[in-house]
């Protein structure tokens, strides 16, 4: 954040999800993966008058060669340069390293995710509470994960196994950690669905919702049918309020360039301006489509004051 002053439209995750849950829509948490693609997400949000979450995970930072500060600086620079007015959140996705979380908070991230889901329940609670206490003291929201969300591409996480979230454990976990948002495992996976098809266990979501008031998050949103997602978002009493979308954005970007192999962030930055705009346009269109037909967040920015 070059000025050191956070724009008024950049909120914490808790502030954003309170509105989403109240009005029955979900906010897309988009991973541009390359810093030049942050602009595309912001432009789409402004055109759709939709709130948006811009995120990156620890593994993505490492794989694409980006620091939390570089990502945050690009985000804040473009919020100002593009004159973005819609509500935004800058979120650190799946991260196990406390040092990375602290670095991101110092860089201006308004939300962080501690992922200790591979640990047993007691250890997950202890670690998540430690991060929640640290972040809350700095005015930052915290997301944590209970259960294990599988993956097909190992970009965001490094596990392909899946363990569904237990509603009773969710009640204890939220109560003892004080987190703001809970990522639940109920049938989706990170990456492209190549063999099994996505499913969302709505009954499990409903059971979790009945036992805890915390905002619910669904990871692995890429490739999930729109009608299936709508059922998860519109649960009685409040459903999923945050949906992570990463793979679809990168596929759109690479497809526009006629590429299959991923780039590093430096390689993306070195692209000819015309190719960068081609990629941005594809990502922008993908984000607008998700906001309109998948999340129900189009034209919802007016609910924020």
From TrEMBL:
Keywords: Lyase
Record Pfam families: F_bP_aldolase (PF01116)
Top-level EC class as recorded in UniProt: lyase
EC number(s) on file: 4.1.2.13
Protein's UniProt keywords contain Glycosyltransferase: no
Single Gene Ontology MF annotation: fructose-bisphosphate aldolase activity
Cofactor section: Zn(2+)
Name of the featured protein: Fructose-bisphosphate aldolase class II
Source organism per UniProt: Paenibacillus qinlingensis
